[in-house]
Design goal:
The chain has 115 residues and is an alpha+beta fold. 23% of the residues lie in helices and 37% in strands. A hairpin with a 2-residue loop joins strand 1 and strand 2. It is globular and about 40 Å long.
Length: 115
């Protein structure tokens, strides 16, 4: 799932791409753990269990990234701006954790993740 959204914040357009992770490369995991460390106290962090938890059958992880401008040379790695960890049942979806990197707060990243 890739969804491209455009948000206006502080008079600066912010292009955000949402991506549902099917597997998690080590560099992505380390970036997400850094966001989690910044956003949550130690007692509320998943830490190394984030990867295992997000890849379970009824769970998922969506990350927000900068959208590359059309025609731009693709970057080898795009730093995540935030993430939402969720679980789903036949009747409902449950947001277990949502976090946005400090540098991207107030720009609509959290709103995009919730949509």
């Amino acid at each position: 799932m890739v969804e491209e959204l455009s948000f206006e914040a502080a008079e600066v357009p912010c292009l955000i791409r949402l991506r549902l992770l099917r597997h998690m490369p080590p560099h992505t995991l380390s970036s997400l753990l850094a966001i989690e460390r910044d956003a949550f106290p130690e007692c509320e962090r998943l830490g190394d269990y984030m990867q295992e938890h997000s890849m379970q059958r009824n769970n998922g992880l969506v990350i927000a990234e900068d959208q590359q401008p059309p025609g731009a040379f693709p970057a080898p790695f795009v730093e995540p701006q935030g993430f939402v960890l969720f679980s789903r049942t036949a009747e409902a979806g449950i947001i277990m954790k949502i976090a946005v990197a400090a540098a991207f707060r107030g720009r609509g990243v959290g709103t995009a993740l919730l949509r």
